[in-house]
């Protein structure tokens, strides 16, 4: 599996799972910095941290609690979401070319910062199994998203 494909899958998951605390959720620009470690697969060069900016609308907060991804493009489902004043936990299942299952745990550090750990088990198309841990920090940058456009809301 290519490094780009892995980061694309993970980026979709993180966009789906960068929730913001009850009463602390803010529409606007959030910056997510992530790092990943993998086992069961040969080392890939340049797998260091990745940073992306996400524009969160009030509609996303009202419906999803924060950023999300279009399940049709990521083929992922988030289930068993438990949101508390101090954080969020959930299960993640993705299907398609690469099948993944795992857990997500987010801690609301303060009104402007969240920390998320995602642990995933994957079944590669070759039948090889591997595990991945993704750690990310999301930081609120401000109400103005500038040139960063929010993802379209699904019609359902």
Write the topology of this structure.
Elements: H1 3-16, E1 28-39, E2 50-56, H2 58-64, H3 71-74, E3 76-83, E4 87-94, E5 99-110, E6 113-123, E7 129-142
Antiparallel strand pairs: 1-2, 1-7, 3-4, 4-5, 5-6, 6-7
Signal peptide: 1-23
Keywords: Signal
Protein name: DUF3617 family protein
Identify low-pLDDT runs. 14-23, 69-73
What percentage of the residues does DSSP assign to strands (E)? over 45%
Q: What strand line-up does the widest sheet have?
A: 2-1-7-6-5-4-3
Q: What gap, in angstroms, lies between the N and C termini? A: 32 Å
Q: Kindly state the number of beta strands.
A: 7
What is the string of helix and strand elements?
HEEHHEEEEE
Biggest β-sheet description: 7 strands, antiparallel
Q: Number of helix segments?
A: 3
| Helix proportion range | 10-25%
Q: Round the Cα radius of gyration to an integer and report it.
A: 15 Å
Given helix and strand content, the structural type is alpha+beta
Mean pLDDT: 75
Shape: globular
What does this molecule look like?
By secondary structure, the chain is an alpha+beta fold. The chain has a domain of 109 residues. The protein is 16% helix and 46% strand. The chain has 3 helices and 7 strands, in the order αββααβββββ. Strands 2-1-7-6-5-4-3 form a 7-stranded antiparallel beta sheet. Strand 3 and strand 4 form a beta hairpin. The protein starts with a helix and ends in a 14-residue tail after the last strand. About 10% of the residues have low confidence.
Output the keywords.
single chain, 156 residues, alpha+beta, seven-stranded antiparallel sheet, 46% strand, globular
């Amino acid at each position: 599996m290519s490094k780009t494909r892995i980061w694309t899958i993970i980026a979709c998951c993180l966009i789906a799972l960068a929730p913001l605390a009850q009463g602390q959720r803010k529409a606007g620009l959030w910056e997510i910095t992530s790092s990943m470690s993998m086992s069961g697969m040969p080392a890939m060069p340049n797998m260091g941290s990745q940073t992306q900016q996400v524009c969160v609308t009030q509609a996303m907060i009202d419906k999803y609690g924060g950023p999300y991804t279009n399940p049709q493009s990521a083929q992922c489902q988030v289930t068993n979401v438990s949101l508390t004043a101090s954080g969020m936990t959930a299960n993640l299942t993705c299907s398609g070319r690469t099948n993944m299952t795992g857990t997500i745990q987010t801690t609301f550090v303060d009104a402007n910062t969240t920390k998320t750990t995602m642990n995933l088990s994957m079944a590669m198309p070759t039948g090889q199994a591997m595990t991945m841990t993704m750690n990310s920090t999301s930081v609120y940058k401000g109400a103005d998203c500038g040139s960063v456009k929010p993802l379209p809301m699904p019609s359902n």
